[in-house]
């Protein structure tokens, strides 16, 4: 391939052809594609730990018919995994997260022994005080995954405390860069702008190795307790839901306010 050059004043520049455009129409000749399933769930525990011993299969194991087959990746986010007391917000206690890791692992693998299904293995987990992210993958998928990293970003008390913030895990699945983010944003109906600031702080401030940001990925999945509210009374909101009047709900949803 010929690279043309030209001179501008005293500078000598090399003009390279746009290989992305030249090769895009021939992608099928040197690459393959694969569809994978990702199951995502999130739960604000309100500091309670008794649920870790309850049956979680109704939540974590929906009927296979819904998905055609089991997901390749299972990502579970928790908020307030510990009580957010003044002592807790400045440090992270991993014990409760480890208990939930085991509970999730046992639940999603509960049928593998009897149905000849693949076992799920823990890929990585992370925690920021009360927020936690746990990612499991099928054992056969491990050979396709590399560059797994985790990171956290505090937003509580102007970034000093971890009672609010985010936990993120990223990976390269084959050549697709995937980022999973669980977040717990500012609470309170009136604190809409503070939630927006939390989101911007996480989106722009959370960093992985090589200064990679959340946006430096092909697939980005947010999950968590974002705390955005619908500005309607409980009874009216429920009536609109029964009427399937989604437009009215969207019109009063803080997420849709620009």
Describe the protein in words:
- With 258 residues, this protein is α+β, with helices and mostly antiparallel strands.
- Helix content is 25%, strand content 32%.
- It is built from nine helices and ten strands.
- The chain has a four-stranded mixed β-sheet, with helices on one face. It has a four-stranded mixed β-sheet with strand order 7-8-9-10, covered by helices on one side.
- The longest helix has 14 residues, at 95-108.
- The radius of gyration is 22 Å and the shape is globular.
Helix proportion of residues, in percent? Answer: 25-40%
First and last CA, distance: 48 Å
- N-to-C SSE string, H for helix and E for strand: EEHHEHHEHHEEEEEHEHH
Tell me the strand percentage band: 25-35%
Largest sheet strand order: 3-4-6-5
- How large is the radius of gyration? 22 Å
List the helices and strands and how they pair.
Elements (H helix, E strand, L loop, with lengths): L3 E5 L2 E5 L3 H6 L2 H4 L7 E7 L12 H4 L3 H4 L5 E7 L15 H14 L3 H4 L4 E9 L2 E8 L6 E12 L4 E13 L2 E9 L7 H14 L13 E7 L8 H9 L3 H6 L7
Parallel strand pairs: 3-4, 9-10
Antiparallel strand pairs: 1-2, 4-6, 5-6, 7-8, 8-9
Defining traits:
25% helix, 9 helices, 258 residues, single chain, four-stranded mixed sheet
State the gist of this model.
This protein has 258 residues and is an alpha+beta fold. Helices cover 25% and strands 32% of the residues. The protein has helices at residues 19-24, 27-30, 57-60, 64-67, 95-108, 112-115, 192-205, 234-242, 246-251, and strands at residues 4-8, 11-15, 38-44, 73-79, 120-128, 131-138, 145-156, 161-173, 176-184, 219-225.
